[in-house]
Amino acid sequence: MSLAWRSGDRVAGVDEAGRGPLAGPVVAAAVILPPTRVIRGLADSKQLDAASRESLARRIRERAVAYGLGWASACEIDALDILQATHLAMRRALLALPVAPRHVCVDGNRAPSVEGLGFDCTVATIVGGDGCDAAIAAASILAKTWRDRWMEAADARHPHYGFAVHKGYGTAQHLDALDRLGPCAIHRRSFGPVRVRSPGPAAPRPGASPRGIPVP
Q1: 147 has a pLDDT exceeding 60
Q2: What is the pTM of this model?
Q3: Which of 106, 131, 201, 202 stands the most exposed, by the fewest C-beta atoms within 10 Å?
């Protein structure tokens, strides 16, 4: 796949992973790539196998001018809704960049507000950007690999749900575990398949730190 490489200075691509799962955070990444140093093999993370994603993620971290990661927890998703929580994660990813971008390209047709981030930049949305823009594709890979590792770690703390396998998505295995066990602390109680399997209102849960993605 031939992706567009931006020739401008400090252009950040932004994408997310984990909007659809029933459990775990939504994770966003922001990546500024060098305009003349091509990373071969970049593509939409959904089109790559796990080994390819991990290999590319290492190369992106090594070669990027800058990258940042941000997230919103299941608690924040329930409080805000998934769109607003995704935009919160994207803002946190932009704040985590050690270099302020001058322009931001966001995958999709809606972008988070950049007001109050402490730097001035322009913003554009690109539908299908993870398949046509190199920086967005790189962001999709970092977000996906980081979230996958988070869910694999969550599997050790919340066994029997199969998080290491399905990463929180609503597979038959996951729904069967919810039927047997009910939701755990990282489930999104506002999502229908979790809500109908909850015995009552969810207890308040602490908010997430915006500074990183700790092991659960």
Answers
A1: yes
A2: 0.88
A3: 201
